[in-house]
Amino acid sequence: MPAGLHPRTHLSKESIFSRMSRLAQQFGAVNLGQGFPSNPPPAFLLEAARRAIGVVDQYTPPIGLSRLREALAEDLQVAPENVVVTAGATEALHALAEALYGPGDEVVMFEPYFDVYIPQARLAGATPVLVPMRLEDRWQVDLSALEAAITPRTKAILLNSPYNPTGSIFSREDLERIVALARQHDLWIVSDEVYDELYFEEAPTPLRQLAPERTFTVGSAGKRLEATGYRVGWIVTPPALAPLVAGMRQWSSFCSAAPLQAAVAEALPVARREGFYSALRSSYRSRRDLLARGLEGMGIQVFLPQGTYFLTAKFPGIEAETLVREARVAIIPGAAFYADHPAPEGLFRLAFCKKPDEIELALERLERYISVKR
Questions:
Q1: Which terminus of the chain has a smaller tally of CB atoms within 10 A, N or C?
Q2: Helices 276-297 + 356-373 axis angle, to 10
Q3: How confident is the model at residue 374, as a pLDDT?
Q4: At 258, is the secondary structure helix, strand, or coil?
Q5: Helices within the chain (DSSP H only)
């Protein structure tokens, strides 16, 4: 009998997002859990993908297809030599963990946190240090707690704005204070900005504008173009570091799908020119408000998001797996986003990147279920 698998495999158990999507399919539930859109990607992206298949089909360099790096550089207003293309934002974050952290290092991040952050830090040998956000009538960053969490072992600060799961956006003032701390302690900043075009009030401030010398920005075509399965992401690095980061990812996926890189390169300027992002924000704002109004009408406390396509709310006395089986609605329990501190009682995250009729059906089912429970 061979020796057992390495203990690190315990970090690779089925995620709550995959589990809830599996249960949603099993029980015919409306899936407001995992964050993938119900509607198809825009026609201009699909047409670009069709044109690329059969033409751009072989390996690209690990750093990415040149035309995509140039399109991203123009869109993000950065230098193309500072852009690395990845197989989705998850691989971007993994490559950065491997490039930036090691045994003995600490990585400061906020709680609630997106699920990949902690395992990726630990796989790199680093220790995640979680700073809880405050939740009263809205989500707030505790900058004093952040400062107190920094030690001589701290290597980086990892943050996400617009923020999954809370839907909050870091103010420019908060970002400036974070940058000041990073400079004071000579830390890297990993800024997960995959929802950079999904905001409902003021546009979020890109952190690289405030600290280009120490910020790594992560982005995602899947979130921008409603094509989460395309697995095209990117990293904007500080000057001269892109080849080193690209060198780390050649040991994992080597490159993301070549025709889809070409398709995204063609689609990005079209999306900007034709106002696709503005229309997307308007559509999501409408769906956010539909979901929020319906929940509030049931007496559920809602924390309205400033960005992303996620909403948090409190459902006291509800259990997620019971809900998906009995009410046939899948949502994500707040405990999935907490490790070091208890989640607020009754907290859940709901995805509103679904068609309006799906949201309405979910609300009908929730209302029936909650009325019986009461």
A1: N
A2: 20
A3: 64
A4: helix
A5: 16-27, 43-52, 66-76, 88-100, 117-123, 143-149, 172-185, 221-224, 242-249, 258-273, 276-297, 320-326, 356-373
> Which letter does DSSP use for residue 352 in this model?
-
How are beta strands 83-86 and 332-333 bridged, if at all?
unpaired
Look up tokens 């707040």; give the residue: 334
Distance (Å) of CA 203 to CA 164, 287, 365: 16, 19, 34
User: What is the distance between the alpha carbons of residues 346 and 43, in angstroms, rounded to a whole number?
Assistant: 40
Tell me the backbone φ, ψ of residue 215, rounded to 5 degrees. -105, 130
> pLDDT (tens digit, 9 = 90+) per residue, 133-154?
999 889 999 999 999 999 999 9
**To which residue do tokens 């889809």 refer?**
260
Q: Using a CB cutoff of 8 Å and minimum separation of 24, what contacts does 115-118 make? A: 115/15, 115/16, 115/17, 115/336, 115/337, 116/90, 117/93, 117/158, 118/339
DSSP 300-346: -EEE--SBSSEEEEE-TT--HHHHHHHT-EE-EEGGGG-SSSPPPTT
198-238 residue pLDDT tens: 999 999 999 999 999 999 999 999 999 999 999 999 999 99
Contact in structure between 62 and 254 (CB atoms under 8 Å)? yes
Q: What is the dihedral of CA 354, 358, 362, 363, to 10 degrees?
A: 90
Would you say 326 and 372 are in contact if contact means Cβ atoms under 8 Å apart?
no
Average pLDDT, the chain: 95
Beta-carbon-side half-sphere exposure of residue 265 (alpha carbons within 13 Å):
21
Q: Which residues contact 85 (CB under 8 A, 6 or more apart)?
A: 60, 63, 64, 65, 68, 69, 72, 232, 233, 234, 255, 256, 261
Q: How confident is the model at residue 1 (pLDDT cuts 50, 70, 90)?
A: very low
Instruction: Identify which has the larger pLDDT, 36 or 267.
Output: 267
Please state, in angstroms and rounded to a whole number, the distance separating the CA atoms of residues 177 and 239.
23
Tokens of 239: 């000057």
Q: Return d(Cα 352, Cα 362) in angstroms, integer.
A: 11
The residue-averaged pLDDT of 118-141 equals 94
Cβ atoms 34, 17 nearer than 8 A: yes
Q: Is the peptide bond before 165 cis (omega within 30 degrees of 0)?
A: yes
The number of C-alpha atoms within 13 Å of 12 and in the hemisphere containing its C-beta is 6
Q: Which token pair is 38?
A: 């119900």
